[in-house]
Amino acid sequence: MLPCGQRYEPDRPGVLYVLNVVVEVKAWRPAVGGVAEAFHARFTDHAYPMHVHETWTLLLIDEGAVRYDLDRHEHGALDSIVTLLPPHVPHDGQSATPHGFRKRVLYLDSTLLDDGLIGRAVDGPEIPDPLLRKQVHRLHESLRPGDELEAESRVELVADRLRRHLRRREPAAAPVRDRRLALAMRDLLDRRIESGLGLREAAAELHAHPAHLVRAFSREFGIAPHQYLVTRRIDRARRLLLAGRPVHAVAAATGFYDQSHLTRHFKRVVGTTPARFAS
Description:
The protein is α+β, with helices and mostly antiparallel strands. The chain has helices spanning 118-123, 130-141, 148-166, 179-191, 199-206, 210-221, 225-242, 247-253, 259-270, 274-278, and strands spanning 6-8, 15-18, 21-28, 35-43, 47-51, 56-63, 66-70, 73-77, 82-85, 91-95, 101-108, 126-127.
C-alpha cells in the first residue's frame, strides 16, 4: 500500500505520482559487452546524496539540467553536452530547475574505459561534442533484444571517441582502408546469418580491435556490419515468405529475435510488413 498522498497508476508501471512529484524509472542490463546497466529516468524532486559508482557514468540530459559536485567542485549537466563521471569518485546531483530533469545513463565498465583515465575525467567531465551526443543517443536506441551487434558496434565507437577526448586527442579521422579485414568480417557474417555473432567475438577471431573492425568494414562496403547482417537476413526472409512460410517461422529461421523484430526491420528495408509482402 502506498503512503497517504501517493497514487499509483497500474496502466503505467514504474510511474509514481506523489502530489506534484513525478518519478519515472526504467533500468535493465543490456546484452552488450562493456555495458553494466542502462538507466532512464525522470525526476522532479529527487536529490542524489554524495555517492560513488564502480563503473563509468555516461549521462545524457534530455530535459532540464542537473547541478552536481564532483571531487568537491561544482558542475552542471546540460542537454547540449555529454557528461562522463568516473568510477570511485564521489558526486551528488539535483535538478537545477523547478521542473526537474529527464536523463538517460549508461554505466560502462573498465573493459571500455580503464581506470588510468579517471583523473582526466575528474578535470573535465563535460564534453561539448554534438557528434558524440548523437552517437550516444543512437546507442540508447539500439539497446533492444536482437540488435546486439548494432549496440556493440555503437558502444565501441562511443568508447573510442571518449578515450580520445580524455587523452586530449582529436577525434578519429577517416579510417585507413583495411580490405583484408573487411573481407574477413564479411565472410564471417555470411557464415553466421542465422546464429549471428557478437562484435567482440568477431574481433577476437579476426585479431582486430572492435572499433577498428567496424570502421574498416564500413569504409570498405559503405555499410556497417550490423546493417549488412540485417539486409542479408531480410533477403533470406523474402525468399521464405514467398515460399509460403508463416511470418513467425521465417523470423526464427532467419535469426531475428521474434516476429516483431523481423517486422520492424523488414518494414524499414522493404517498405512494407512481412505479412503484406507475402500476400
